Amino acid sequence: KVHKDGNLITDEAIPGIDLMIAIGVIIMLLGFLGCCGAIRENRCLLLIFFVSLLVIFVLLLALGILGAVEEKKVKQEVTRRLVRIINQFFSFQLKCCGLVNGPSDWDKVPDSCRCNATEPNCTSSVYSTPCSTQIINLMEKHMKVVLGIAFSIAILLIFGMVLSMILYCQISRKDTASTA
């Protein structure tokens, strides 16, 4: 595929797309499982749904804690991975050059690093700010949104677990009452 800029879109240009698709399929299947369990009043399906949501919640919580505790390592890993995918797209879109040390990262400064001297971050007609700094600034700028989304997902998971367990217990009481 080719982006509207004329850049080639490769698997490296869109990291984790397969993982996102897999997660989407799993979430869809879990939703279907929960609906089937509720409609059929099947305790086994509801219990599987509850346990699955609990596992996802624990993983989400663990990743959040790990990300907060290992913030320095996360930044290092982001920088390391960006080395592989840095290209003209980032330089052009984020108005930056190089990854870590700015223009000195390149033996020959690419055209995408060139700028008008009137632009911010532009020294001697080349962007002076490294792309890793721009990307980390962008991530930090949107971190509240990301944390808000993660928190909302966690609340929805807890809500789903509570409702599935309430339904599970009501079905248990109904089954006990009908056999007595």
From TrEMBL:
Pfam families (alphabetical): Tetraspanin
Compartment(s) of residence: Membrane
Gene Ontology cellular-component terms listed: plasma membrane
Superkingdom to which the source organism belongs: Eukaryota
Keyword Disulfide bond tagged: yes
Membrane-spanning parts: 20-39, 46-69, 145-168
Membrane topology: Multi-pass membrane protein
Primary localization: membrane
Disulphide-bridged cysteine pairs: C97-C115
Keywords from the named record: Disulfide bond, Membrane, Transmembrane, Transmembrane helix
PANTHER family: TETRASPANIN (PTHR19282), TETRASPANIN-8 (PTHR19282:SF380)
Protein family (similarity comment): Belongs to the tetraspanin (TM4SF) family.
Protein name in UniProt: Tetraspanin
Natural source organism: Cyclopterus lumpus (Lumpsucker)
